Amino acid sequence: MGSSKVLYRAEPADQRLVEPLDMMTLIYQRRSGITHMVGEPVPQMLAAMGDDAVDAAILAKRLAKTFDLGGAADAVAVLSERLEELAELGLVERITDA
Known about the structure:
InterPro entries: PqqD-rel_X (IPR027599). This is HPr-rel-A system PqqD family peptide chaperone. The chain is of the alpha+beta class. It has one domain (5-92). Helices cover 36% and strands 31% of the residues. It contains three helices and six strands, in the order E-E-E-E-H-E-H-H-E. The mean pLDDT is 89.
């Protein structure tokens, strides 16, 4: 049996209000009524995800077009951790592709 792949999908952009505030960004989720205060790279990650279900490697490729992420393996590892954190906060949905 093959292992399952974990993908992540951001809530649709029209379901969240994003307001930059100095070094932080406020993200209000319409569905939950919760406002999250986040720093970089969260807003950039959500924007790069768009409406697609992505894994950390796909997200790293998208972000590398705009940002210097350093080593690809390191970037994927860090983005994997950030995606898990965002899933725990409810800002992204964790999808298992069996």
